[in-house]
Amino acid sequence: MADFEVKHSTHTCIVPARQEEVPLFHKPPKSKTNERVFTKDQSVFRPWREDTDYLLEQAFRIDSQNWKLPRFIKDPEDVAGCERVLRENFARLKKIFLCEAADSGFPCIQWNAFTSFCNQCDVVDGVAVNMATVDRAFIATNVEATKLEENPPQALQRFEFLEVMARLAQAKYVTKENGVPVYKAI
Predict the structure, then answer these.
(1) Would you say the C-alpha torsion 143, 94, 101, 165 has a positive or negative sign?
(2) Percentage of the chain surpassing pLDDT 70?
(3) Which CATH number does the domain 50-176 belong to among 1.10.357, 1.10.10, 1.10.150, 1.10.238?
(4) Under 8 Å CB-to-CB from 35, ≥6 apart: which residues?
(5) How far apart (Å, rounded) are the C-alpha atoms in residues 161 and 171?
(6) CA angle in degrees (0–180, nearest 5) for 180-72-104
(7) I need a labelling partner for 11 at 20 to 30 A (CA). Which of 21, 99, 127, 165 fits?
(8) What is the pTM of this model?
(9) Residue 60, exposed/middle/buried by CB under 10 A (0-12, 13-18, 19+)?
(10) Which among 65, 135, 68, 64 is positioned nearest to 93, based on CA atoms?
(11) pLDDT recorded at residue 150
(12) Cα-flanking dihedrals φ and ψ of residue 110, to 5°?
């Protein structure tokens, strides 16, 4: 019995070591996952219309009827130039307005959200435009020339957003020397 114990022990491996790699295996899913596809016509956004050049022009025309650019820009050529710049950039400004209004008090931009926006965009430079300038522009813009029923007193609608941007641009880039406007290079 002593010979048997020496030749065979319980620690002897009787299975040869595996030479090939173990193949990767994963269980197939039991249920099929549905791929969700957005269809605008079957959603709550069905009545929403995408911006076209015609719609943008109509919106700009309505906005320009409500703002007060001629009250603070005295030269008619400057008013036309400012209006031209706003018209050229209206699609982009409209998107900016919608993003800011969505974070504020849709469909308007609240005062605190607007001052935060001005800080984020570096409108406030501490030289020509400081926070007091932003506040004065906001207040002056909110003075209603004609009473609009849906216009809140402490928030900006889209036409007011365009107007306040023109006011801040004037404060930042136009100085007066002897009563004559002098335009700073951008």
Answers:
(1) negative
(2) 85
(3) 1.10.238
(4) none
(5) 15
(6) 135
(7) 21
(8) 0.73
(9) buried
(10) 64
(11) 73
(12) -75, 160
